[in-house]
Each structure stands twice: as C-alpha cells, then as structure tokens.
Amino acid sequence: MTRRKRFEKQPPPEPWRAVRRIGLARALQKAGWGTRRRTEILVESGRVAVDGKLVEDPRIPVETSSVIEVDGEVLTKVPFRYYAFHKPFHVVCTGNEASGKRMVEEFLPRDVPGLRPAGRLDSRTTGLLLVSNDPTWNNRAATSGGGDQEFRIQVEGELNELEIGVITAGVHLPNLGLFRPLSVRIIEKMNNRTVIVMTVREGKVRQIRRMFTTLRHKITLLRRIRIGDIRLGDLVAGSLRPLSQREVALVAEAKMPIAPASGEGVTT
C-alpha cells in the first residue's frame, strides 16, 4: 500500500504581465511592490531587468509580452499580507516626520514588498498600528472600516469627576471642533497621576492631546490598544503579528463591531 503524501507540491506562481503598455514603475506598483516612488527607487537602484536587460529608468514602457525581473527573479504578483504592529515611542510612520527618528518600515518584514501603515500615529504615541500591502484595505482601515478606537492614557495630576463629566460631554477645541469620546473610564489614581481608558469613534490623537492641554493635564503616556475588534493585547513594542482572516474581513467589509472597553493592566 502506497503511503499518501501529506503535502502536495504547490505550482510556482504565474509571472506578472501588464495588461496594457505602461511605465515600468507603474507596472511594479500594480504588481504590489509599493508606492510609485518606492518602485521608482527600486528601478533606479539597478534591481530591475526587462526582457533580460537591466533598466534604471522607471519611466521606460513595458509591453504585455515583457518579462520583468526583480533581483534576478521573474516578477510575480505580491500576495496581500496583513499585520498588527506595536509601534514604539519615537518611531514615525512617514519620512516627513523622521528627522533622525526610526521609521515603522524598519520593523517590517523585508520579504514582503509594499507594506505600509494604515493611517498614522505621531512619534510620541505608541500602540496598535495596522499594516498591510493592500492599498484598498489600508484606506478602509484608516477611515470608517477601522471602527472605534480605544486608548490608554496616563496624565499628570488627578482627574476629578467634574473633569470626567466635561470630557464625556465633549470639549470644543480651537480649529479642531467638538471632540466627544464615546466613553471615558478611570483605571487608577496614584502618585499624582491618573490612568484612563478612552474610546473614540473618529477622534484624532491631536484632539486627545489638545483636550488634556485645555484641561491643564500633561499626557505622559498615550497608547492605542484597540481598533474595532483588533486588540494590541500583549504584543511587545516593535513586534508584529499576522491578522486572522476574521480580523482582515472585518476591516474589508467595514463591519467592525464596537467592542467593550478592555481591562488591561495599568501601563506606567
């Protein structure tokens, strides 16, 4: 009796071909190798060949019959990958913010081209950041598809019940409009500091910071711990984990539920 093979050998992926005459950088972008600028840099760095000839001009047109190679490998469509990333303190999402700081892309897998954060967190804000090489999914995750967000916030001084009431009712911020969180919950008061968990629907980090400045409380820690039903959990700063199929689908379908406030331990 012949023993049945446990795993079948997978056929190699089909080479990616342009469906019409387009520029080389655009072709690489469509194959999932990143933004237009990133694919231009890829070509300019001498890593791309067309029909066996090295090309360094990202604008050169490629035909439907052209064979494109990157680093000596025939170009194939990059499969989409989706991750949750724990952004550390003083790490930035874009080159415009860099100014000597480390960038998120330095922590991402080198063998998955085109990975980009879905939305941004400023350098002082840590916590959950969604990352993928699927531009449509990223755009949805950064907008309504992401659902509500939950932040763990530590401020100097003790927040009293009146201030919590003001925050819950909403605060008008100059040039930023009304900021009204969905919920605010005090976790701990100790050593002249207060730790709270705040849930917001469409608020931005700068609105959270401006609100506490208005209330004369300095934020000493601001960490995003949940986006919709995707949680940071115990993910270590600087590390990432693949999202489950369910988590990916919740964003893609823009039906992420509003989860109850988490009960994670206090962060100091």
Topology (SSEs and partners):
Blueprint: E1 22-23, H1 24-30, H2 36-44, E2 48-50, E3 53-55, E4 61-62, E5 68-70, E6 73-74, E7 82-87, E8 91-92, E9 102-103, E10 116-117, E11 126-132, H3 135-142, E12 149-156, H4 161-169, E13 171-173, E14 177-179, E15 183-190, E16 193-200, H5 205-214, E17 219-227, E18 230-231, E19 240-242, H6 245-252
Parallel strand pairs: 8-9, 11-17
Antiparallel strand pairs: 1-4, 2-3, 2-5, 5-6, 7-11, 7-19, 10-11, 12-16, 12-17, 13-14, 15-16, 17-18
Helix pairs in contact: 1-2
- Can you name the CATH architecture of the largest domain? 2-Layer Sandwich
Shape designation = elongated
| Arithmetic mean of pLDDT | 86
What is the tally of beta strands?
A: 19
What is the domain total for the residues? Answer: 3
In whole angstroms, the N-to-C terminal distance is 63 Å
The helical percent reads 10-25%
Number of helical stretches of at least 4 residues: 6
Q: Describe the biggest sheet?
A: 9 strands, mixed
Flag low-confidence runs. 256-268
What's the CATH topology name of the largest domain?
A: Pseudouridine synthase
Structure description:
- By secondary structure, the chain is α+β, with helices and mostly antiparallel strands.
- The protein is built from 6 helices and 19 strands.
- The protein has helices at residues 24-30, 36-44, 135-142, 161-169, 205-214, 245-252, and strands at residues 22-23, 48-50, 53-55, 61-62, 68-70, 73-74, 82-87, 91-92, 102-103, 116-117, 126-132, 149-156, 171-173, 177-179, 183-190, 193-200, 219-227, 230-231, 240-242.
- The strands form 5 sheets. Strands 7, 10, 11, 12, 15, 16, 17, 18 and 19 form a 9-stranded mixed β-sheet that branches.
- Helix 1 packs across helix 2 (36-44).
- It starts with 21 loop residues before the first strand and ends in a 16-residue tail after the last helix.
